Amino acid sequence: MLGTLAPHGSVGDLRSPLMSRPNEQVMWGRVSRRLFLAAMFAFLVLVFAPLFFWLVEHDRSGDVHSVGDAYGWLFRTLFENTSPYKLKNQFGYFSYWIVRVAGVSLVAFATATVASRFVATVINRGAGMGNFKGSGHLMICGWSPKGFEIIRELRAKEVEDRREIVILADIETAPIESRGTTFSRGNPSNTDDLQRAGIMAASTVIVLADDANSSNDPDDLDARSLLTTLAVESLNHDAYSCVEVVKSENRQHFERTRANELVVSAELTGSLLAASAVTHGLTGVVADLLTHPEGEEFYRVPVPLELVGRTARDALVALKDGADSTLVGIFADGTCTVNPPGAQVIAGTDELLVVRSRPAGVNA
Q: 23-126 in CATH: which number?
């Protein structure tokens, strides 16, 4: 049970912050800051150099009558690469060379600063350290081999929902390179990392039993998932959450959260194996209904206008004749009635769960 986790460091792992950042990120961040400071120093030198030039030249040169003339000398010196006024003393020559050196340095440092910031941004994104700016996306918290199957299904051509997918996991590199998929490196139970991955604007969150950490004990996996679920709910309780639970005994802990759906791996696997032993061939049927692209799949569709006010018995016949679809259930008030009674009347606000071979809208 979650309350009796073995003391082998799992709780510490759960609360630990993100692993140390890539060395490249730290290095380029320091380089960028130093170049920026150097550019600012060169800029300040150019700002105050004309004042010094005016102090040492205005009583000796007939060209320098005011501070404005000194700043005019500055710009002409920078663009003409030579002094437009005849210098009268060694301090004037000193000002001239200071301006020449500071001008070249400013251009060099400013260019290097922009380049280093660009490189740091690219490195951050490649290492999953960038900030996701989108909204309405689907977030996967944690990572395991199941993640590949989830993305494969979500990106199947039959799936019309093409929302951006953000993967938040404490691993070094992106686990998958796919169009419309963004990787964010971080601890899924850490508030800062969740916000960086865009949790506040996410519409759906999938919490996987994360095996990226050292311990793969089922209780530890569920404990990490529970912390992640609580963190997600505290930041965005409007997001629809689907949570994987490894051990059926731990379901009770997740039921105390506001998770919308719990997928208990042990229960589903055990039940399917037992049912298949009795009803031979059942695994093939379930796989056909849940996976793309071959065969039939489940679809949740709006009620066609012509079926509003009619019974489930009428809808069953109309859907089969008009759309080659089989009515499996009716969603009313967020709850699905599987194999609804034939006399149940369908309301306009209901939705239908049908089995069909393509995702297009159902028209009876």
A: 1.10.287.70
